[in-house]
Design a protein that fits this description.
Blueprint (H helix, E strand, L loop, with lengths): L15 H8 L2 E2 L10 H4 L3 E5 L1 H9 L5 E6 L6 E2 H15 L3 E6 L1 H8 L3 H18 L7 E5 L4 H10 L5 H8 L4 H20 L4 E6 L3 H18 L5 E5 L21 E2 L3 H9 L9 H7 L7 H10 L3 H12 L5 H28 L10
Parallel strand pairs: 3-5, 3-7, 5-6, 7-8
Antiparallel strand pairs: 1-2, 2-8, 4-9
Helix pairs in contact: 5-9, 6-15, 7-9, 8-10, 9-10, 11-15, 13-15
The structure holds tryptophan (TRP) and iron/sulfur cluster.
Iron/sulfur cluster binds next to α13 and α15.
Amino acid sequence: MAKTIDPWGSKLIGNYEKIMKEFGLEKFKIEMFPNPNRIMRRNVVFAGRDLKIIAASIKNKKPFYALSGIMPTGDKIHLGNKLTVENLRYFQEHGAITYILVADLEALTTRGVRLKEAKKRALNFHIPAYIALGLDPRKTVFYFQSENKDVIYGAYEFASKITLNEFRAVYGDADPSRILAAVTQVADILYPQLKKPMPGIVPVGIDQDPHIRLTRDVTRRLKSKYGFVLPSSLEHKYTPSLDGKLKMSKSNPGSYIELPEDPEKTERKIMNAVTGGRVSIEEQKKKGGQPEKCMVFELLKQHLVEDDDELADIYKRCRSGNLLCGECKKMTACKMKDFLNDFNDKLKKAKKDINKISFVKF
Ligand code: TRP
Ligand code: SF4
């Protein structure tokens, strides 16, 4: 029996291997894709569905798409969004036609965000933030759910292919607003195939996997009518919270890093993080630190060190007791500051260029 995870909640998933088995996910194998990106090389990307068909599309230079959605709530994004953008960018650089949608209908029905407000937020912040993180707007098709009639009509049509029981089995509950959001999301993911069926990949955090499962179930039923190809997914782990919990959560702001964020505040958070250090400096020099238990190392591994040799060197120096946590945290805070400042510069530039972007129209 597949357990349910709630993509809107924040229940922790302790054991990724177990989740993979329960959900029937494929293990991500690094040999499948050319020039794997940092998070693929580091096992942050750990699973997926139907990855072979995407690998073959890349290899044979056959058309495929990569797609993701932005929730226009608040005026912040998080490090999980950064991982998604990095994977989108990978596929974009390997020939994918890229789609980014603003989930304004989802925000309206599940969070009560008015459409006008959602549009303002997406244009003033979320889309520029995705561009600042490396998305190439010239190679991307953008749309708002509320302005894409094929998506809306698709949602109405595809809704007839799901039963309430199935919905409950995937999500655990069946709120009308969640049903609306989910069928719209199914239509989002299939939208690029309406003109012409082709493989597509949706990079997601593991908490979004229920959406992928539902979409694939619906797609199986529509296959004979439309010839759709089952959409693939690429799934990444959470960036753990600095207090050692599996996922960053707004309920503990001292351990949560958002984007954008004040570099000084981030330094304090990193200095207070749970590490794999020993009880005393003497003991750490003798026994060495434990990077595999360390939230600071996780931050370096997932986000802040691009070069594999540099990361291996930090790991070795930690294990041998040559690198102590104080120094290591300072170095990490410094790298974080550089990243945040760079992000802010790119964000400013992307905000200026927002008028150059065109959207799919009703
Ligand atoms: N539900 C997604 C979220 O909570 C947003 C979204 C809507 C989406 N449509 C999508 C994500 C299609 C991926 C693909 O963030
Ligand atoms: Fe973590 Fe760095 Fe301390 Fe090692 S030295 S345990 S990597 S903070």
